[in-house]
What we know:
The protein is mainly α and about 200 residues long. Helices cover about 55% and strands about 5% of the residues.
Amino acid sequence: xxxxxxxxxxxxxxxxxxxxxxxxxxxxxxxxxxxxxxxxxxxxxxxxxxxxxxxxxxxxxxxxxxxxxxxxxxxxxxxxxxxxxxxxxxxxxxxxxxxxxxxxxxxxxxxxxxxxxxxxxxxxxxxxxxxxxxxxxxxxxxxxxxxxxxxxxxxxxxxxxxxxxxxxxxxxxxxxxxxxxxxxxxxxxxxxxxxxxxxx
Length: 200
């Protein structure tokens, strides 16, 4: 995104030459009006533009809960602006004039970061959905299993028989598609235990 048509055309050509699909906008407002999540992507924007600046655009994206790596361009070499941009969430900052390869390297890194973020988010959502299959009692057993407690200890804490613990434990393994306690621990460490039963 740049208010300079020549810069926009140059970037579209550059990215198209390596097979990257590109949509150009002449202002931050035009981008926000047209925005739709198109999968793995990144945003390249000039810092100083008429109307909404690149920094203001970052704030608008955050307010709209749009997560997208942003690379900001500037012709001014303004260090304070660069610092503000990075603090506001820009993944990188590049000064004009820049080499085509430098820009491509930054974009490729941003796309990889966005792909990793999306994969992590999808895994977390899937984990939360799987965890929601557990009953409150099964969730309490799950929490104690990943804490390293034996069936006997779990039974004593929850005031249920060892046999009942074993039944719950088997159901937990099945519902979370775990083949071993190690799988359950990995599931737990991946942050999928934020919702569910308490410590009763």
